Amino acid sequence: MKFSSILLPSLLCAASASAQYFSAGWVPGQGPNLVPDAPAPTGNTPTPGQTFDRAETPAPAPPASGGSGGVLGGIASLLDLNRLLTAGPVASLFEKLGMNVTEAVGRATASPWDLRIPFITDENFEDVIVNEELTPEEEKERVWILIISVTAGGNNAISQFVDKSFDEAYNQTLIAGDLPHVRWGRIDYINVTYITTKWSVWSGPYIVLLKDRGQSLRFYKADRVRITPELLRELLIEELWRNSSVWSSNFAPGGKREWILHYYALGLTHVFNFVNRFPRWMLMIASGAIASLVMRILHRNPTAAVPPKAEEPKPIASESTGSETAVASSTATASPSKGKGKQRKNKK
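Given the sequence above, the corresponding structure tokens read:
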């Protein structure tokens, strides 16, 4: 019985073995039987362990130089509120409560603009507008129309209306094809610092017309006129923008004091890039703590001045005693004179 239990696995192993593992052995007078090595893989031919499937969509572009990076960027990504809310345990917890947090975060982070319109940022302004490859004729006719939007900063009804009109005018222009020399772009006021500071733009929304590679600027405050798609297209088709004056102060492009806004904008850009690495909720907590500390310092009670020590009154007992002694002595000296007078009278 034991022999059969050992024989059966041995037969199974022999049946599963391949004949290529067995050889006739070495015969006297025969040279060494060397097995040729497998050819080394070439540089373009990956080994089987290195094969991979190419992704259908390209990888996303790396973040810009001004974005989050380094240790602070890693901490900020870990502390991102949207990432924390959409994490597995937190999302499942809210799902048990009947709330779809992932869908809500997706709606909140969705872009409110037409993504066909390119974004003009601090990083690509020079490449897209200033250094655009154009022939002399194209450079003479090139017009850029930009919108400085503040929609991302909050629920600004005017900015949302202007954005919608701007997107609709862009869509109508694509359909009509009657403005081939005009380029459209959008500036997100919340995430762009250098351009808006150098142009001395401190609020929004604005419509900006650029000519001469960004050296000629015309600004239109969008909250003073009802901006409609028809109005924007009329402004471009009939070139009504030529009737408005170009920004030509000393701080404008080409002005004597342009360098002041240039370096001021660079400083604010570095500050923004550093602050932008932290989540907004962390900045709100830090700013509230700093404001509370400043208010406490400003409203603290002033230290009370120590009053000077009052001089101790001098004792007046000795003076009264001295006066009484003087009066008594004067009285004693005056009484003998009266006795002498009486004696003289008696003698007479």
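Residues 68 and 277 are 5 Å apart (CA to CA). Try to locate this feature in the token string yourself.
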